[in-house]
Amino acid sequence: MEAAAATAIDVDVQPAAAAAVVARFFAVAGRVFEAARAIHYHHDYQHRTAAAAATARHSAGGGDGDGDGDGSGSVGDDAPQLPPVGFDRDQAEQFTASLRALVQQIDTAPTSIAVASGEQDNRNNSDSDSDSDSDAVLAACRKVTRDLLVHLARFHGSQQHQKEGVSDADGEDVAELARRLWPALDVHALGCVLRDLARRWEEDGRRSGSGLGLDDALVESFSRLRVDGGLASGVAAGGEDGLSVPEEVPGTGSAEPVAGVDAVGRGVSKRSRVPLSILEDFILDGLAYKSMRDREEEVTEAHNKTFEWIFGADGDSTDTGKQHSGGHTFRTWLEADGLGPLFWISGKPGSGKSTLTRFLFEHGATTQCLAAWAKGRPVAKAGFFFWTSGSREQRSQTGLLRYLLHQLLSADRALIPTAFPGLWQRISSMTTKERIQVSLEWTAPDLMAAFGALLDAMLPRANVCLFVDGLDEFDGDHGAMIDFFKDLGAGRHGRRVKICLSSRPWDVFEKAFKHHAIPSLKLQDLTFVDMRTYADDSLRQNVHVRRLAKKSPPQYDRLVDETVQRADGVFLWVRLAVSRLIQNFEPGQGMASLEAALDSLPRELDELFEKLLFQDQTAAELADTAALFQLVRAREAVADFIRDESANSLTVWELAFALAGSDDDDTALLGPAVEQIGAAECRDRYRRTTAYIRARSAGLLDMYASHAHGGSARRGGQPARFAALDVGAEHPEARLLDAKVTYIHRTVRDWLVGHSGAVQARLQAGTADSFDPHVRLLRSYVLRLKQPLAEPERHRRLDEWWPDIALAMTHAAFSSSTARGSPGRAQLRALVNALDATISWLWLSSDADDHWARRAFGSYEVRMKAPPIRAPFLCLTVRFGLRAYVEDELEARREEEILRGSNAVVVAGAGAGAGAGASAGSDANTDDYDDNNGTPLLAYATEFLCSRQKTLYPLSSRPLVAYLLSHPSPSRSNLNPGPNHRYTDFHTHKPTTAWLAVARHLRDARRRGWLAHYDTAESGARRWAGVVRDFVELGGADVHAVVLADHWDPEVTVRGVLDLLCETYGDADVAEVRDVVVRRAGGC
Q1: What gap in Å lies between CA 945 and CA 957, rounded to an integer?
Q2: Are 1054 and 993 contacting, i.e. CB atoms less than 8 angstroms apart?
Q3: Confidence class of residue 296 from pLDDT cuts 50, 70 and 90?
C-alpha cells in the first residue's frame, strides 16, 4: 500500500456537523475499500501478467524464452503496474483506530441533518422515504463502519494470526490470509454500498437544496466504482431466462416454493405438440405487467395545433426562430443517419416533455420520417414512459426492458424463440400441467441478454426506433442507464437504431448528451407559441372571458402574453394559472379581475403549489385537502409494499367510502347484513366524491379512467359491473367509478414528498389527531364489502377477494392507531374483525371449521396433508404483522378463558423468559409433542425473517415477536406455547420448534444468498439479528439446539449457524448475537 494510505486517518471525535461526519466516513471507508480491493487486484494481476508474459515470449521467440518465469517485467514497458498488495497487520490496526474514532464521531453527530442546517424535519415515519432521508444515510454510515471493524478484527486478531501461523515477515502469507478473510464478493458488495450511499447523499442534498453535498471529486470517484468482473465472480445468478426452479424440500421429494414463487418440477416431460401461439402467448404474458401502459395513457395529450413545429421542414418559418431550428434538427435526425442514433429532449420540470414524447410516438409524421430513414426496410417502434409515482416496474430497468420486449416481440412473434432460446426450449418440452405451474421471474441480466439477442436477429432486416421518456424518473443508476442506450447505438447495427430520450437537464444527462454533441433541444425555449395557443383556447372556453376578449382584444392579448411569459417555458404553470384565472374571474370587474388573479400567482412552481394548497384555503378546507392527499399517499405506500401495480392509485369508488363517513355507513359497519347498494346512492356518492376531489385537490389531482389495460376494474368491489345497474342515460359519469385519482404531474408528488417531509408534516398538522388514512382505507374496504355494487353472491372463490384483503390487511399493519387505550386502536380491532365477519358471511362454508382464511395457507392438497390450522384468521393477522390487533386479541382470549374458569395459566411479564427457558433443549417439551399440534403463532411471526422475495407479507416484526416471546402460555392447546415447544411442520410434516425454524431460516438464507453484505437497511440485519437475540434473552430459547441435516446442509448447532453467518458476512449485529449465545451456552 502507498505510504499515504498507510497512515492512520485523523478523525476528530468532538461533535461535528453531520455533513462533515458523512464526508469523513467516505474518506475513511473509501480508503479501506481501496486497500481491500488492492489485495485481490494484486493477486489477479500477478496471474494475468504471468500469462501475458508467456504469450509475449511465445510470440517473439516461438518458445518459452529466457524469462525467469515470475511474470514481472517480461511483457515490455507497456505492462500494467502491480497495485499495492493491500494492508498488513499494522495498517489494519491503523484503520481500526480510525474507524473506532469515526463511530464515536457519528454517535455524537446531530441526530438530524435538517436540525444541523437550521431546518426541522417532522416527517412521519410511514411517509418517509429512506432513500432520501439524511438521517438514514448517517445510520447506514455507522452500520458500515461497525461491519468494517468486524472485518478488520478478523484480520489482525492475535488469536487468528497464531492459528494461521502467520509471521510479520511473511508478507505473501498475510496477503493470502487477507484474501481468505475478506473475499472478493464481500469487497464487491462494499464498493456497491459505498457507491449507493454516495448517490443517496448527493441526491438528498440536491432535493433539499441545503448544500450538504460531498466534495465533487469524492462523489465522482464513488460514482465510478465499478468492481472488476473477477471480483464479482461468485455472485448468485438468477435462473436461466427468468425461469425460477425452486429447491426440493428434504425428505419429501416435493418442490418448495421460494418466497411465493410458484413451483415447477425438475423432471422434463416428453416434447408435447403444443401450438406455437400458446408458447408465444406464455412468454408475452410473462413479460407483460398490469401497469405497463398506464403512464403512457395518463400523459396529457398534446393540445390542438401544438408541437406541430417539430416536424417543420428546412426553410419553414415560425413565430420564433428557435422553434424552426429545433424542429428542423429533430426531423433531420429522424429521417437520416448523419446526426447519430440518439436524440435528447431536455426541459424544465413541467415543460411538457412527456406530452411531446407521446405526441412524437403516436404521430403519423413520425412514421413517415422513419420510413424515409429506413429506405424500404420495415421499422419497429416501441416506447416507454418512466413514472416515479407509479409501480416499481414503471420506474425500473426490468420494467423498461419487459415492455420494450413485449412491444417488439408482439410485432414479430417469430423472434420470440430467438430472444429466449433457453426458456423456449424448456417450455416446449413441458406438458400443459407442468407449464401452468411455472412462474417467470425476470432479472435485469436475463432481460438484457434477451434484448441483445432480439436486436441481433432483428436489425439485419429491420430498423428499430425507441422513444423513452423520463430518464430522470428511473429509480436506479442514471449513468448505467445512459450507457445502456449509448451501447445500443454503438453496436454493429448502430446505424439501424434510433433512440429518442427525454429528461430533466440534470448534470448527469448534460455531461452524457450535450457535452458529447448528441443532437438535442431545450423544450422550454421552443413552446411559447404552443403555450399561448393553449392559454388562449382554455380561457375562451369560459363564455364570460370569451365575451371580454371580443370586447377588449388588446388588453386580452396582453393578459395571455403575460401569462405565458411568467410561465418561463413551464407548461404546467400555464395550466394551473389558467385554471385559477377562470376560477377567480368576476365578470362584473372585467379585465381587472383577471389581471389581479394573475398578479397574485407566484412564478415558481413550488411557490404556486404552496399558494394553491395552503394559502388559498380556509382551515376547514385545508383539513379536507390534507385528508385527501394523505389517503393518496397511504395507498401509494401500501400498494408499493405489496407490489400490487393495479392498486397504486385510489379509485373514485374507494375514496367514496374513505372520506368523511355518514351515519348510514356507521350502521352498515355495525350490522351483519350485506346488501347491494342502490343506483341512486351510487350516483349520489359519485357526485359528492368527484366534487370533493375537484374542490379540495387545489387542481393538483386528476381523475383518469383506465381503458382496456388497467387492472383497476376489480378494485372497490368490481365497479365495472356497475354498468349492469339502471343508472340512466342522464348520468353516464356514474360508470366511471373505477377512475383512478392521480397527480397531475410528477412535480406535484416531488413537492409533496420532498423538502425533508415539511409539506407532509403540514398536511398532517391540518387534520385531527384521530385521522388515520390507513384506518380510513380499511374502513372503505369493509363498507364496500357490505354494500357491493352487484347482488351479493356467496361463494368459495377466495382469489376474487384476496387482492383487496391483502390491501386492507396491509393498511391495518401500516396504521399509526396503535397506542394502548386509544379510540383508534379499538376502532382498528373492530374493523379487522368486521372484515373477517363480512367475508365469513360471504364465504360458502362446508362446515363449522371451514374458515375462509385457511385458503391463504396453501392449496387443498397441501392443507389436507398438514396439521390443522388453529384460529386461521388470527394466524393470518400475525403473518400480516398486525401487532396491536394480535396483542388485543390474545389478551381478550385470555380474559375469556379466565371468565370461563379455564385451567389455562396466563404467563405474562418479564419473568416469562425464565419459565420458557426451564424446559429448554433440543429434546425439551417432548411430553407436549402431538402429531396434530398446529403451527404456533411464533412460527408465523418469523416465517419471513430475512427476506420477503416475492411475498406480499411483511418481514418479521421484532416488536410482535418480542410480545409473543414475553407472553407465552404453557397450555398444550394454546397458540403461543413458547420458542422451544415442539410441533409438526406444516410443509415437511416433521417435528420442529419455532426456535429451530428460525435457525433453519438463517441457514437457508445464507445458502440461497438472501442476506446482504454490509446490510444498511433498517429492516435488514439489525432487525432480524434483534429477533434472534430476543428469542434467547426474552424467550429462553435453547442455545444448544441442533438444526438437522438436509439435502444441502449438514447438521449444525444454533451457534454453528451464527458462526457461519459471521464468517460469511462479518456483520456487527450478528456478531453481537453470536456472543450472547456463546455466553448463554457457557462457552468461549
Answers
A1: 8
A2: no
A3: confident
